[in-house]
Automatic annotation (TrEMBL):
GO terms for biological process: cell redox homeostasis; cellular response to oxidative stress; hydrogen peroxide catabolic process. It comes from the Bacteria. InterPro entries: PRX5-like (IPR037944), Redoxin (IPR013740), Thioredoxin-like_sf (IPR036249), Thioredoxin_domain (IPR013766). Residues 2-82 form the Thioredoxin domain. Keywords: Oxidoreductase, Peroxidase. The active site is at 48 (cysteine sulfenic acid (-soh) intermediate). This is Redoxin domain protein. One of its GO terms (cellular component) is cytoplasm. GO terms for molecular function: thioredoxin peroxidase activity.
């Protein structure tokens, strides 16, 4: 379990952007940043789309006003599904 204010474990995350797969190293992605990281059990499921994600979107400006540099959503789905 990752606790508040703890360092993110080093690993890799994949992102599909503009048709190209990009791999991000977590040590670099989170270095010297305040990040809100949350995960959903499945992309585009009714519960995730209706209950989990919208709150972060609605509160994005408030989170950023508290010094948050990035809000990142993870899912167990592969990047092509996302």
């Amino acid at each position: 379990m990752i606790k508040i204010n703890s360092l993110m474990p080093v690993g890799e995350l994949q992102e599909l952007k503009n048709g190209e797969m990009t791999t991000h190293n977590t040590a670099q992605l989170f270095a010297n940043k305040k990040v809100v990281l949350f995960a959903v059990p499945g992309a585009f499921t009714p519960t995730c789309s209706a209950a989990h994600l919208p709150g972060y979107v609605a509160l994005a400006d408030e989170l950023k006003s508290k010094g948050v540099d990035a809000i990142i959503c993870l899912s167990v789905n592969d990047a092509f599904v996302m």
